[in-house]
Design goal:
By secondary structure, this protein is of the alpha+beta class. The protein is 59% helix and 7% strand. It has helices at 10-24, 26-38, 42-48, 62-73, 128-138, 144-168, 172-176, 185-198, 200-213, 215-218, 221-227, 231-238, 245-253, 256-259, 268-277, 337-350, 356-383, 385-391, 396-425, 433-450, 457-481, 487-490, 496-521, 538-550, and strands spanning 79-83, 92-97, 108-113, 120-121, 283-289, 297-302, 316-320, 326-327. The chain has an eight-stranded antiparallel β-sheet with strand order 4-3-2-1-5-6-7-8. Strand 7 (316-320) and strand 8 form a beta hairpin. The chain is globular, with a radius of gyration of 27 Å. The two termini are 33 Å apart.
């Protein structure tokens, strides 16, 4: 209802809903969007945060040397799996299962191998990009279920905010082509509208698909009714679970003495055969079942998929381990249309099977969405500056939003950069090192939330954005100084996971530096004479008014 008691129209009611659904959880949504956008390069972050791996340079003999290394490291294993280097990985990630080991991931042992020599590498302990990825949908320092519920509710709010925003702005597409600088509130609204429309399909899909990924927790009643609460049975049926090849190999093998020893066929001809069949992606991984026995098999898996309908399932080739002859195997069953639809929706959200160009498009769309959330929260403050001028003071709620805006937006950038710096400055052998990196992240973020309390609004923005720009810009310099590969090394060697991270940090530094330049471009207005009856907090309103004019 309007103040005069008359009912509001649809657009007016949607405007109220859009404003408050976006503000109440806006700071959390910004953090979710920001960390989710960085998670598109989770593998690249993992590589950069383990500088011990930067000496690993892939070559034509990488696969054979890795298999030879497994003969030394795990000669009694029932299965070997080698994830080969590629555009998003610089070393060989090996895993194996010993006889009698537990099923699933718990029974696997892992090692990282130098792609050039096959020697084992011991990288430093770090959570890497996994921390940002996990924080994106389950937060931190709380039970995972609670975190996912909080993020799920926030995602629902965001979906409501997007839909209500489209209804509210009847000229939203026209406004997309309009930007009026130095117009205060009008400029912020133009920026918010432009970023909202520019990636509107992405915003809708990414929010809806996020809800789909969490629907088994948010709306579990169908599964509970049909499967009697046995969610494991549901997921096993959905994935078409079948006996693991490793388990079968272990039963067949029994023991090396019983089966007899047998050398593996050279892998180079097998890799050449696969390269002819998969010229785009090549071989992404090698799995050897029952190694060292006459029943050994070598499975080559393509380095990428062709369709989101089957979750980017890669094609495979199976060879006899002793002779190298190709074996026939049945084609996997096509997923049902229900499962295919779900795979497409969730696959777009995760971006796991995206080619580099698509991944960068998703990343840039995420950046636009992050800017959209930030401009929306700043717009809430700017729209209320006239009210503060009339009052001659800053209400507590307005000041709280100002502080949270600075700490949540600029502060998160500082905290993320500090997380990467902690990765290099903490001693490599420090106990619980990964936890200390994360503690450094939250300590930096907490300090950034406290900083606006003792600084003016404009100065707080300026100082935190400047700090973030410097921290991001110096990361490519810090990298070679702390054992990593510099851009002069990573680019010629084709180590694009490392080079891409450094270049992205420079881009983030440029973005934050542009904000600093924009803030410095305007000068605060002269302080007007104070009102006689103005409360003690009137000075804060004057500073806020000057900050508005500086925009």
């Amino acid at each position: 209802m309007r103040p005069d008691g008359k009912p509001e129209g649809l657009r007016q009611s949607m405007s109220w809903l859009h404003t408050w659904s976006g503000l109440l959880l806006g700071w959390l949504l910004y953090a979710v969007f920001f960390t989710g956008t960085l998670s598109y390069f989770r593998d690249e972050i993992d590589d950069w945060m383990r500088p011990e791996l930067h000496v690993s340079v892939p070559g034509p003999e990488t696969a054979q040397r890795a298999l030879d290394a497994m003969q030394r490291i795990a000669p009694e294993a029932t299965t070997w799996t080698l994830s080969l280097p590629g555009p998003r990985q610089t070393a060989v990630e090996a895993s194996w299962r010993e006889p009698g080991a537990a099923q699933g991931r718990a029974g696997l042992k892992r090692a990282t191998l130098d792609a050039a020599t096959g020697e084992r590498i011991e990288p430093r302990e770090t959570r890497g990009g996994a921390f940002l990825y996990r924080f994106h949908f389950e937060l931190y320092a709380m039970p995972r279920v609670w975190g996912r519920w909080i993020v799920g509710i926030a995602t629902m709010f965001m979906f409501v905010a997007i839909l209500s925003g489209v209804i509210t702005h009847k000229k939203i597409f026209t406004d997309f082509f309009t930007f009026r600088p130095k117009k205060g509130q009008r400029s912020w609204l133009d920026a918010h509208n432009a970023t909202a429309v520019l990636a509107l399909p992405f915003h809708l899909v990414i929010t809806f698909s996020g809800l789909v990924l969490l629907m088994f927790m948010l709306m579990p009643w169908g599964i509970q009714a049909i499967y009697g609460g046995d969610t494991n049975a549901y997921f096993a049926e959905v994935r078409g679970a079948r006996p693991q090849a490793t388990t079968q190999g272990e039963r067949q093998r029994g023991g090396r003495q019983e089966a007899g020893a047998a050398a593996l066929a050279p892998v180079a001809p097998l890799m050449a055969e696969a390269a002819q069949r998969w010229p785009v992606h090549g071989v992404g991984s090698i799995t050897v079942n029952a190694p060292g026995t006459p029943r050994a098999t070598i499975e080559l898996r393509e380095g990428g998929g062709e369709s989101l309908a089957n979750r980017g399932q890669a094609r495979t080739l199976l060879f006899d381990g002793a002779t190298g002859r190709m074996r026939d195997r049945p084609e996997p069953a096509a997923p049902s249309w229900v499962r295919a639809t779900s795979n497409v929706v969730t696959g777009v959200h995760l971006g796991r099977f995206a080619e580099p160009a698509v991944r960068w498009l998703l990343f840039l769309s995420g950046v636009v969405g992050t800017v959209m959330a930030a401009t929306g929260m700043v717009l809430w403050v700017v729209k209320r500056l006239p009210e503060r001028r009339k009052l001659g003071r800053t209400p507590f709620g307005h000041r709280l939003v100002e502080v949270l805006n600075v700490g949540s937006i600029a502060g998160l950038s500082v905290a993320t950069a500090a997380y990467f710096w902690m990765n290099r400055l903490l001693p490599a052998g420090l106990e619980a090192r990964g936890d200390w990196e994360i503690r450094g992240f939250f300590i930096a973020w907490l300090l950034c939330l406290l900083h606006p309390l003792v600084r003016t609004h404009r100065r707080a923005w300026l100082e935190q954005m400047l700090l973030a720009a410097l921290l991001f810009a110096l990361l490519p310099v810090l990298n070679p100084l702390t054992g990593g590969a510099s851009l002069a090394q990573s680019v010629p060697h084709g180590q694009w996971s490392i080079a891409g991270f450094d270049l992205t940090m420079l881009a983030l530094a440029a973005l934050h530096g542009w904000v600093v330049w924009w803030l410095l471009r305007g000068k605060p207005a002269a302080k007007p004479a104070p009102r006689a009856a103005a409360p003690a907090t009137g000075g804060v309103a004057v500073k806020a008014q000057a900050w508005e004019r500086a925009q």
